[in-house]
Amino acid sequence: MDTPRERIPYSAIIDRPKLKLPGGARMAVWTIMNVEHWDSTKAQPRTILPPPMGQPLLPDVPNWSWHEYGNRVGFWRLNDMFKNFNVTPTLAMNGIILETYPRIAEVALEGGWEFMGHGYIQGPMHKLENQREHVQSTVDTIKSFTGKAPVGWESPGLTETMETLDVLSNCGIEYVADWPLDDQPVELKTTSGKPMYSVPYPVETNDITIMALQQHSSEEFATRCIDHFDRLYEDSADITRIMGISMHTYISGVPHRSKYVEQVYKHITSKPDVLIWTGEQVMNWFKTQI
Q1: Which of 191, 193, 152, 192 is nearest to 175 (CA)?
Q2: CA geometry: angle at 176 spanning 151 and 165, to 5°?
Q3: What CATH number was assigned to the domain covering residues 17-49+57-289?
Q4: What is the domain partition of the chain in residue ranges?
Q5: Which of 171, 95, 168 has its CA nearest to residue 138?
Q6: What is the pTM of this model?
Q7: pLDDT given for residue 1 in this prediction
């Protein structure tokens, strides 16, 4: 399969069979909490401060520290919020997190979070020498800690090569969050013949896009996520929709954004006919509908 289009046939959402959520719900929302390990000795995956005089310096202490704040402080602020709103997130984690930030993994396990593979280290899939080894090591590490192999995968930066889906499928992954192309789960083809499901993942209700790339003010996260939710809620009166919200500890976990993140979940959880699920729950439900 040489192109993404060969992985998935076109389908207009208005032409599909009706999807029915349990309990008469009209839509489901899942939350992806990204926890990453950044190598302090290398160039950082993302920066907030440009190098003085345009001359990069290693170690990049300020930008590494900017991210490190998220795992030292931001995660715990967000974890309190999730508990307050009875939200069980999906933890998109680098496999090495179990070595470098075990306290985060312990709390997520205690809270019943879904563990999703997010690469073993933070870096693009197309730069790996051996994708299979990378994926399998992530799967094995998560399984050894939780007792259950992950079924979901989010590639760092949503990066894939044309072999990535087949590698993931052969390593036991059943759904991916790399294909932001629909409001419903869809099936992707693999060379093994085993289906791979795409669960709707956000690029526009994602704090990286809104805050780190577009550099909006803090309240824009709430405005955009709530507007996005409200339209999907309206649409779901006729056609079931799935919404994802993606957050990073060092972006959404900072003090000046926290109240706006809380506004999003206060709004969403005020609706009685909205399910707050994990990605795995979305996938398992979708399998019953096809």
Answers
A1: 152
A2: 95
A3: 3.20.20.370
A4: 17-49+57-289
A5: 95
A6: 0.95
A7: 67
